[in-house]
Design goal:
Elements (H helix, E strand, L loop, with lengths): L10 H6 L11 E2 L5 E2 L5 E2 L11 H7 L3 E3 L12 E3 H7 L8 H13 L31 H10 L8 H7 L9 H21 L6 H4 L3 H10 L11 H15 L38 H10 L3 H6 L5 E3 H13 L5 H16 L5 E5 L8 E4 L5 H10 L16 H16 L10 E2 L6 E2 L3 E3 L8 E3 H11 L4 H7 L5
Helix pairs in contact: 5-7, 7-10, 9-10, 11-16, 13-14, 16-17, 17-18
């Protein structure tokens, strides 16, 4: 029969006859305006009548109904399915979910319809493809390709040291902050490629434009001829694309960013626009706290009352952890930080515990300066799991206050340069020199600093190299 069938009686009408008849459930209207029957057939009003399957033919093919739930009577119309519908999607005796039902109805509705000029159908019952990701005609754009590759490198919480040992570190990103920074600059690159080269649709083909984009970014200047972006920004953008494409250091096509010079650093060197919206008078306690503890912003925002440690508490914790036969990763990290602080600062008795600081490292830094007792008093008045600072002003120059902390700490431990012994001999000239003296170069050529005091500053600030302290923190000494 090739005529379009009429809607069947409702399920309630069949039930009221006193028995469950061998009839499919009443049709429903889907988003396309089709009448969908629960036996898997469908009728489109705008499609030729030859595509319709009659209800009589459907019933003749499969006269026996099946109760999926195993009950005498179905609890609701959705519980009843015909043998053909069950076999077509392989449901067997299991209840059919709404998602499976949508796939089956979609396949039965569209599987036999052929588009104009095509020899293949959209879908078949045995190969139902739902969603654009499973579509044969769907292609990811450049933005999505870059996002998928970068997120595939996430290795948050994994050991970077172990990854470097087994050679897999180049394909992983261990810090969420690094991931966020890289993704921000990669999006700039993807947007530029989309505008400049609209025919470039794959991440692989976009690799040839990496050098051009970086050179363009490095060469842009303002009306006064000054670069719009610092050498540090260009270095970060190059590192992001090198990570995305796995460009090795020895690759001849690798972009070499501009050389970074200490005299070009602008952060916390000059007055900034944000300073106009920050009152030093109203935030005097915050400034004194930062200058006495050397906290980074991320630690300052999550600092709690329990993070104040006395020397006695640290020694007791060290003894307890050393006795423990099995220690967690967190306990091992804390034990190492306690040992470093007690060894480097034997004369200090109040410390701030910096939990999960930059790079996921823990450290203890001494509380110093004239406001030492004020800082400790605020910490003691704060609950163990309450934040010391409910709000940290966005205009506060936290990095500048860390420099003040470093300068104060250096002055506490620095020895007079002339009193540092000449304890080493130069093999080339046979002249004696001071191994404990750090000699600055370039724009600060000739300035001499005490290496031992610089090392203490480096430990307190959470760095591993004394050159970082000399270049970014110790100013105006």
């Amino acid at each position: 029969m090739n005529a379009i069938r009429k809607p069947l009686r409702t399920w309630h009408e069949s039930r009221n006859d006193g028995e469950i008849r061998n009839l499919p459930f009443p049709p429903e209207e889907n988003r396309w305006g089709n009448l969908l029957y629960h036996d898997g057939s469908a009728v489109r009003p705008d499609i030729d009548a030859r595509l319709a399957v009659s209800a009589e033919e459907q019933i003749d093919r499969d006269p026996e109904p099946m109760h999926i739930s195993g009950a005498e009577q179905p609890a609701r119309p959705g519980r009843l399915r015909t043998q053909a519908a069950i076999k077509s999607v392989g449901l067997m005796m299991k209840p059919e979910s709404s998602y499976t039902r949508r796939k089956r109805v979609f396949a039965n509705c569209w599987g036999s319809l052929e588009p104009a000029g095509s020899d293949k159908s959209f879908n078949t019952v045995g190969d139902v493809r739902m969603g654009r990701k499973n579509s044969s005609i769907y292609r990811k754009d450049l933005h999505q390709q870059a996002y998928d590759r970068l997120t595939g490198m996430q290795a948050f919480g994994e050991s970077k040291k172990e990854a470097m040992a087994d050679g897999t570190a180049k394909d992983k990103i261990f810090s969420f902050a690094t991931y966020a920074t890289y993704w921000k600059h990669i999006k700039y690159f993807v947007q530029w490629v989309g505008i400049r080269y609209p025919d470039c649709t794959t991440l692989k083909s976009a690799k040839r434009y990496v050098r051009e984009w970086l050179e363009n970014r490095a060469g842009q200047t303002d009306e006064n001829g000054k670069p719009l972006r610092s050498a540090w920004t260009i270095q970060t953008e190059a590192a992001a694309l090198n990570k995305l494409y796995g460009i090795d250091r020895n690759d001849p096509e690798r972009f070499n960013p501009p050389v970074r010079h200490r005299e070009d650093i602008q952060r916390s060197r000059e007055a900034a626009v944000r300073d106009k919206h920050f009152s030093k008078t109203n935030n005097a306690e915050l400034i004194a706290f930062c200058r006495g503890t050397g906290c980074r912003r991320n630690v300052l925002e999550k600092l709690e009352g329990r993070d104040l440690w006395s020397r006695r508490r640290m020694e007791e914790e060290r003894t307890e952890l050393e006795k423990s036969r099995y220690r967690t990763v967190e306990e091992t990290t804390r034990l190492k930080a306690i040992r470093d602080a007690l060894t480097v600062f034997p004369d200090q008795d109040l410390f701030i515990y910096h939990r999960k600081d930059k790079g996921g490292r823990d450290r203890f830094s001494p509380i110093i300066g004239p406001d030492r007792e004020v800082i400790a008093g605020r910490m003691r008045r704060t609950g163990s799991h309450e934040k010391v600072w409910a709000h940290v002003h966005s205009g506060a120059d936290i990095h500048g206050y860390r420099a003040d902390y470093a300068a104060t700490l250096y002055r506490m431990y620095a020895r007079p340069i002339e009193k540092i012994p000449y304890d080493q001999i130069n093999r080339g000239t046979d002249r004696r020199y001071q191994s404990g003296v750090y000699i600055c170069r370039k724009d600060e050529f000739g300035r001499r600093l005490d290496r031992e005091a610089m090392f203490k500053c480096s430990k307190a600030l959470g760095h591993n190299r004394i050159s970082v302290v000399a270049d970014h923190y110790l100013r105006g000494l």
